[in-house]
Amino acid sequence: MLVLGIETSCDETAAAVVRDGRQVLSNVVYSQVARHRVFGGVVPEIASRLHVETLPLVVQHALNDAGVQWEHIEEVAVTRGPGLAPALLVGTAAARALGLSLGRPVRGVSHLVAHVYSLFLGLQAPEPAAVSPMLVLLVSGGHTMQLKLTADGGLRLLGETVDDAAGEALDKGAVVMGLGYPGGPAIEKAAVGGDPDRVPLPRPQVRDTSLVPDGRPPELSFSFSGLKTALRYFVERHPESISPDRIADTAASYQAAVVGSLIGPLRRALESEEFVALGCVGGVARNRLLRRLLEETGRDFGLRLWLAEPQFCTDNAAMVAGLAGSGW
Predict the structure, then answer these.
(1) Which candidate, 53, 64, 1, places its Cα nearest to that of 27?
(2) 3-state class of 75 per DSSP?
(3) One fold for both 2-118+314-324 and 126-308?
């Protein structure tokens, strides 16, 4: 099946064509980062207006790259949520219009499940059944959670953030340190050569059961709001910590604290249940420190680590089209 995917959940305008859920024929992404950088974050109204302006061009680009015509498309898939409501509306309206004009079905898919499916894009990627049950860490600007993936594509939530997402913590931390937006890449660049133990920052652990619904163990959840506050207070007390000769240490310490706050609950989840593989998806999955510590964790537990290809970590439409054509 040849599926056209559309993704407009936040500040990436994306379209892709995928065959049979695995073979990515095209994957086009227009990033709005430059337009939002001046605001230090995504402005929903600006994001939705830019989606309106660029989506027709992005979709046509995806068809051209794939070498297919409109009549070859058998289904249109679109992110239905979660995401920014005005931005999602642009994508869903476009998908419905295309479905009507082409006489093709339109399928709405979960943005989060699509991120998980990004592990299986590409003809060299594993088959889900061969690496299940898998513990999947999903880390992005808007979401942080760990899930158990079963062979049939089923997902069970084991733990999630009780306040901020890891990507948001990186963005806000970068603002405190004067490093700009987006925060993850800015902090990673600034941290090169820095001492990750120079600044004493906490690795929060959730213990309050009232913060976690459905009776899930609180120790499998994540928290970043206290870490952000600790960084702000430290910088206010020690303004020299973000001077040119000290910023590498401060950035490295904060990056290590954010990543450490991810690894702790992940290891506890691995100790609590049986898994045959470990996976990581989402924009933050591109962070090199996180990847290194995940590899170490996988070795400690005798599990192979699977990572989405870098171009499929951040928001994209290939994961949307792939999920729709996968049969999940």
Answers:
(1) 64
(2) strand
(3) yes
Alpha carbon distance 112, 126 (integer Å): 19
Question: How far is the C-alpha of 79 from the C-alpha of 316, rounded, in Å?
Answer: 10
Pairing of strands 144-149, 134-139: antiparallel
| Adjacency order of strands within the sheet including 75-81 | 23-31, 12-19, 2-7, 75-81, 106-110
CB 196 within 8 A of CB 219: no
Contact 283, 184 (CB under 8 A): yes
Class of domain 2-118+314-324: alpha beta
Q: Is 320 helix (H, G, I), strand (E, B) or coil?
A: helix
Per-residue pLDDT of 106-135, as tens digits, reads 999 999 999 999 999 998 889 888 999 999
Q: What is the CATH number of domain 126-308?
A: 3.30.420.40
Domain boundary assignment for the chain = 2-118+314-324, 126-308
Residues 6+ apart with CB under 8 A from 71: 102
What is the C-alpha to C-alpha distance for residues 249 and 112, in angstroms, rounded to an integer?
Answer: 34
Single out the residue of 82, 100, 74 nearest to residue 17, CA to CA.
74
Cα gap 91→48, rounded to integer Å: 9
Vertex 27, ends 38 and 107: CA angle to 5°? Answer: 100
C-alpha–C-alpha distance, residues 54 and 49, integer Å: 9
Q: What's the length of the chain? A: 328
Calpha distance 155→142 (Å, rounded): 19
Alpha-carbon gap, residue 95 to 78, rounded angstroms = 6
**Residue 39 banded pLDDT, cuts 50, 70, 90:** confident
pTM of the model: 0.93
DSSP 8-state secondary structure symbol assigned to residue 161: B
Least confident of 6-10, 38-42, 293-297: 38-42
